[in-house]
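We store sequence, tokenised fold; for instance:
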Amino acid sequence: MVKWILNSLIALLLLSMLGFYSWPQSSAVSGSQATSDVQMGFYDLMSRRKEVYNSHMENVNNTILTTITSPDDPRFMLKGKFTHTGTRQSQQWFSWSPIYYSTASKGLMIDGLVDLMMNMDVWMQPLQLNGQPLVVGQSGIIFLYPLH
């Protein structure tokens, strides 16, 4: 269950990234600046604990800079960058590197996501079905794009 949740969150983060790289109808041009804002969350059923985060992504020279903040804790900030490492078999591959991490809390659920992204490359694959852009993630999650 935890692995599915982490993969879901990675897919949500990457969903907004792929609009910058993958879709022919995207208005983003390589080297241009585009931004995306999404909200993501974690929920632990056993402890009934939740964490909500705001994610801001900005495309700068084929690198996606991310800033993740918490609306519940102004001391929390995570900055990182996704680097497009290539395309293999129509999949878009990214690596993630942390730039800055500040939190007053220990044992946050987002720490698992940070560790996972630092230690593995992630892929997403853009598809179209009847003209509707879709994104399929390595966890099997499918999203409509753009988000509504």
About this structure: Helices lie at 2-21, 110-119. DSSP finds two helices and eight strands in the chain. Residues 15-31 have pLDDT under 50 and may be disordered.
